[in-house]
Amino acid sequence: MSDSIGIFGGTFDPIHFGHLRPALDVLEQLDLERIHLIPSANPPHREQPQATAEQRLTMLHLAVKNSAQFVVDDRELHREGPSYTFDTLLSLREEFPESPLYLMLGTDAFAYIQTWHRWDELLDLAHLVVMERPDETAEIPTEIEGWYQQHLAIEGESNKLAGKIWPVKVTQLAISATDIRAKISQGLNPQFLLPDAVIQIIGMLGLYK
């Protein structure tokens, strides 16, 4: 079997430590080979990013330039229409047919997964990793509780290619891209919230002012 791959999507507008540290927690706890960071082009459930696709891609590259286990993956930026996770997983499964794939979600996103495009087919293509803060447990909507319990992973199933749900406790960092953008627009210093290289390129490009 090939290497296990984590998949972490988002607008990353901008990428910050609240993204990166939990991703590292998942990589280590599930013994993944690498994590693909996939910036979305047209997120169907979120507002459109303020920074351009090229700018967000540049910030991602700078954020993980010294971390070999993080891979910047721009496949959604080359696809027209809404950035549906199902389409992204299908593309990854075709590229890595023998690799276990782990789609990483926060508890807030998982709470409305039943509204996603072809959500009930996601487990055909990948595992789902629900990233929980130390003081929380994911709230499971009543309408998918049976589905959740049916697919909940048990020890020894990490060698499967797809099909299981893995709750993982991650480091709690109360950092949001919205707050970072607000600080920058107010002329405040965002240091220690995101990598210095990302702060520098934001300043050079005059983003979020």
Describe what this molecule looks like in 3D.
This protein is of the alpha/beta class and 209 residues long. The chain has a single domain (5-173), classed as HUPs (Rossmann fold). 33% of the residues lie in helices and 15% in strands. It is built from eight helices and six strands; from the N terminus they run βαβαβαβααβαβαα. The protein has a six-stranded parallel sheet with strand order 3-2-1-4-5-6, with helices on both faces. Strand 1, helix 1 (17-29) and strand 2 (34-39) form a beta-alpha-beta unit. Helix 2 packs antiparallel against helix 8 (196-205). The longest helix is centred in the N-terminal third of the chain and has 13 residues, at 17-29. It is globular, with a radius of gyration of 17 Å. The mean pLDDT is 93.
Q: Which CATH architecture?
A: 3-Layer(aba) Sandwich
The number of E-state strands comes to: 6
Apparent shape? globular
Amount of beta strand = 15-25%
User: Total helix count?
Assistant: 8
Overall CATH class? Alpha Beta
Task: Work out the count of structural domains.
Answer: 1
The topology string of helices and strands comes to EHEHEHEHHEHEHH
Fraction of residues in helix: 25-40%
- Give the spatial strand order of the biggest sheet: 3-2-1-4-5-6
Going by CATH, the homologous superfamily would be: HUPs
Rg value = 17 Å
Class from helix and strand fractions: alpha/beta
CATH third-tier fold name: Rossmann fold
Distance between the termini: 48 Å
What integer is the average pLDDT?
93
Which residues form runs of ≥5 with pLDDT under 50?
none
Main beta-sheet strand count, sense and barrel state: 6 strands, parallel
